[in-house]
């Protein structure tokens, strides 16, 4: 049966990528359908109950700056907030929130159900409708056909998913959910490069069985951070404590004793796991000389006793899991409510995608999230938003958009994936960005909200608040630049004891703010009482302190921009460029970069090869 109405965009999968994708397309005015296995699991956190962290919060704030839902849902469900790297530079500062899973999911569902132009339907998608290499819709498990010329697949860990606990395994998309077998088989028929990855999760523990007197408490920060520029601290739920404990030599001995029944070490699992979020058995194996590993204990929510012990993800057999958990301080009598497990799943080489996240082989078919080899809610959400907005633009015959590497972590993420592909689950770090000082979490709105408004992603209320903040920053910056303090004046005396070297001449307040020992609060009211919002003060202080570095980064970006604009013709044959080594030719032919700058970023493409390509392109005219 054909569903009677036609859609502009269909999104398959209601996880973190899918929800941002369908919200983005609908915000842009497209008739959008979200199809997912189960309405009850929309926005579900498959693994740890936390959002943000280093590199990841930058993505969350960029999603927010573009009108997305993840940061607002985090504020609605956040039960502990902290600023990581608070004492380090602003480039690497990051917000992390523990979330009550139920509240987070409810906030996402609320956003979905109240979004105009968006329809939700619960059903597995088993097949795609493709005509002449152009997607036309999808077919669900019960044979219902939905039609659209743009389809975004965000199937997470579900394609061909296999769950492993010890040497036992079964098909599954995640614990308690079915896998997507029919769709996986269908996708394997297309000329897309497919491979297997794996990820894992720890056993969950009943708090009633834990001895908290043995654990170290960790509370959130005060004043409490907010995740969204639209967030309201006063509306965040009650805040709770997390705890820290450690593994010990006995734990490690138990794990080593179980490795012969580990699916990872006995060769049952072939997929590659996340390097930066390894299982406890991986850690014991890889860092054999370490006698202890930290376990960070996160509450799963306000209305449950379940705890998430971050750091002991495992797929060892259940008897080993029980023994290893009970060998840890505070967990001596712990009751496991859900076993840890690993999951193997299909992912597709993102080098087969365009920068819009549309596949190169099937027109209108987009991939976003874990299906592209990434790991993490934030990475998935950011890709989802990009795929959704580009699907919406395609529906309107508009050109695709993707931020550059110097505009957003989202630009870095997509560029890394498309240029280099990935052989292991990819997660975001600040170290992946070369322009860290420009891509701070505090200025995500300044970098992206105007573009978001132009794309149709940012609503009136957010836009108005953004404009007010931008004006307030400009006004206050101008005031600080125009307000002067004389050496030896009453105002200068107020700085005594705060500044390292005395003032010897007249200084503007903005210049004073450049001194590392002075903060906005020290200088702002030297001449008259002024009151600005926290976020405005923060923005001005960072701009003042880092303006030298920021303008140097900007100059470098402008220099490299020339390469960003040097494009290869679509049919360019890299094999015909004389002087390139066969290895470089092969790498370029596989990755098919569209600009010289992207060619330059492919590992193995040397500066000499870039010069040859530049000369060749110039000769071709
Ligand atoms: P998901 O959140 O998985 O959402 C996929 C959605 O698609 C689901 O709603 C599903 O029902 C739906 N779906 C799939 N196929 C179909 C279909 N054919 N028809 C209809 N609906 C369909 N991340 C980390 O950063 N660190 C970790 O340590 C970590 N460990 C993990 C451990 C496990 C066991 C799992 C399952 C995930 C783990 N993750 C981890 C990954 C994290 O959950 C994902 O990165 C993130 O959820 C990916 O978001 P997504 O939107 O791509 O997919």
- Sequence of strands across the biggest β-sheet: 16-17-18-19-15-20
Bound small molecules, by name, code or SMILES, are: flavin-adenine dinucleotide
- The unreliable regions are none
Radius of gyration equals: 26 Å
Q: Strand pairing plus helix content: what structural class?
A: alpha+beta
**Major beta sheet summary:** 6 strands, antiparallel
Helix content: 25-40%
Number of strands: 24
Describe the structure in your own words.
This protein is an alpha+beta fold. 35% of the residues lie in helices and 18% in strands. It has 19 helices and 24 strands. Strands 16-17-18-19-15-20 form a 6-stranded antiparallel β-sheet, with no helix packed on it. Strand 18 (294-299) and strand 19 (306-310) form a beta hairpin. Helix 2 (56-65) packs parallel to helix 9 (377-395) and helix 3 (70-77) packs across helix 4. The radius of gyration is 26 Å and the shape is globular. 47% of the residues are buried. The model has no long low-confidence stretch (mean pLDDT 93). Bound molecules: flavin-adenine dinucleotide. Residues 12-18, 35-38, 41, 46-47, 124-125, 154-158, 173-174, 177, 180, 183, 199-201, 274, 277, 313, 343, 369-370, 375-377, 380, 427 line the site of flavin-adenine dinucleotide. Flavin-adenine dinucleotide is lined by residues 12-18, 35-38, 41, 46-47, 124-125, 154-158, 173-174, 177, 180, 183, 199-201, 274, 277, 313, 343, 369-370, 375-377, 380, 427.
């Amino acid at each position: 049966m054909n569903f009677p109405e036609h859609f502009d965009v269909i999104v398959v999968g209601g996880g973190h990528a899918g929800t941002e994708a369908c919200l983005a397309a609908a915000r842009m005015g497209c008739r959008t359908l979200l199809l997912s296995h189960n309405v009850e699991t929309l926005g579900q956190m498959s693994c740890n109950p936390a959002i943000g962290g280093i590199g990841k919060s930058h993505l969350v704030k960029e999603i927010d700056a573009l009108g997305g839902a993840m940061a607002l849902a985090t504020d609605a469900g956040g039960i502990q907030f902290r600023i990581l790297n608070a004492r380090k530079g602003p480039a690497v500062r990051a917000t992390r929130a523990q979330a009550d899973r139920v509240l987070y999911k409810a906030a996402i569902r609320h956003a979905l159900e109240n979004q105009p132009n968006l329809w939700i339907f619960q059903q597995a998608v088993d097949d795609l409708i493709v005509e002449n290499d152009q997607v036309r819709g999808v077919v669900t498990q019960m044979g219902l056909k939905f039609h659209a010329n743009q389809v975004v697949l965000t199937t997470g860990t579900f394609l061909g998913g296999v769950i492993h606990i010890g040497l036992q395994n079964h098909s599954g998309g995640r614990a308690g959910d079915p896998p997507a077998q029919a769709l996986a088989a269908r996708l394997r028929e297309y000329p897309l490069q497919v491979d297997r990855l794996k990820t894992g999760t720890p056993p969950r523990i009943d708090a009633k069985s834990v001895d908290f007197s043995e654990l170290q408490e960790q509370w959130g920060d005060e004043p409490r951070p907010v995740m969204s520029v639209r967030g309201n601290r006063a509306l965040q739920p009650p805040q709770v404590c997390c705890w820290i404990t450690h593994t010990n030599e006995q734990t490690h001995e138990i794990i080593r004793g179980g490795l012969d029944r580990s699916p990872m070490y006995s060769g049952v699992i072939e997929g590659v796991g996340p390097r930066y979020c390894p299982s406890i058995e991986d850690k014991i194996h890889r860092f054999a000389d370490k006698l202890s590993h930290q376990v960070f204990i996160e509450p799963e929510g306000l209305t449950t006793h379940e705890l998430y012990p971050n750091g002991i993800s495992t797929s060892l057999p259940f008897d080993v899991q029980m023994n290893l958990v009970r060998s840890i301080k505070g967990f001596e009598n712990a009751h496991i409510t859900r076993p840890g497990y690993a999951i193997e799943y299909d992912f597709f080489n993102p080098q087969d995608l365009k920068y819009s996240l549309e596949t190169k082989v099937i027109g209108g078919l987009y991939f976003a999230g874990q299906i592209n080899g990434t790991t993490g809610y934030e990475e998935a959400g950011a890709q989802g938003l990009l795929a959704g907005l580009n699907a919406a633009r395609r529906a309107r015959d508009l050109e695709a958009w993707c931020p550059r590497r110097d505009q957003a972590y989202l630009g870095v993420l997509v560029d890394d994936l498309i240029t280099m592909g990935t052989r292991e689950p990819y997660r975001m770090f600040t170290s992946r960005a070369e322009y860290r000082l420009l891509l701070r979490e505090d200025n995500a709105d300044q970098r992206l909200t105007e573009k978001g408004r132009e794309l149709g992603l940012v609503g009136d209320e957010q836009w108005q608040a953004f404009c007010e903040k931008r004006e307030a920053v400009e006004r206050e910056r101008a005031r600080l630049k125009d307000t002067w303090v004389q050496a030896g004046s009453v105002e200068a005396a107020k700085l005594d004891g705060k500044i390292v070297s005395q003032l010897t001449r007249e200084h503007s307040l903005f210049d004073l703010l450049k001194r590392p020992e002075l903060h906005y609060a020290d200088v702002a009211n030297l001449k008259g009482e002024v009151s600005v919002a926290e976020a405005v003060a923060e923005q001005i202080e960072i701009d003042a302190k880092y303006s030298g570095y920021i303008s140097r980064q900007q100059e470098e970006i402008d220099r490299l921009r020339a390469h960003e604009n040097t494009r290869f013709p679509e049919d360019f044959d890299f094999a015909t460029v004389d002087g390139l080594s066969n290895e470089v030719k092969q790498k370029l032919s596989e990755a098919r970069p569209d600009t010289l700058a992207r060619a330059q970023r492919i590992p193995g493409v040397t500066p000499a090869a870039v010069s040859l390509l530049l000369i060749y392109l110039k000769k071709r005219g």
